[in-house]
Amino acid sequence: MAFFSHLFRRTPPQVRAAGTVDYVSAPDIFNYPYLNLNPTAEACLRKIVSTLASLKLELYTHRKGGGRSLVVTHPLFAALKNPDPNMTPIQFYSQIIDDIMRGDAYLHVIKAGGQILFERLDPRAVRPSNMSGKIV
After folding, report:
1. Is the overall model pTM greater than 0.90, yes or no?
2. Which end of the chain has a smaller Cβ tally under 10 Å, C or N?
3. How many CA atoms lie within 13 A of 112 on its CB side?
4. For 12, phi and psi rounded to 5 degrees?
């Protein structure tokens, strides 16, 4: 009988205020454990990041008479095509664009032997400081 009295009771059940809701994302290259985003916002952010990261990057120079020409001999051209040898360019750009969308992005530019390489720095581990008007 107690079961039926709970189902058909005349007094309304007490309404409790909702506590905090923790959203959990699927683990992949976009997942940051320190962020708990709404799943819809997270899905939109991932779509934007993956779309921008898949765009083809080119390096152009402007001509005096107008127009532009592709520059393939500059070291920056090779760096844009393969920015970090430890990951694919789409993974690298996805992480950088995701960092930008979430706040700050930091790169370590390595120039060695006429080559330029980029290394993504984890925004949680970077402590920027102002030295002579420059952020380092």
Report:
1. no
2. N
3. 5
4. -70, 150
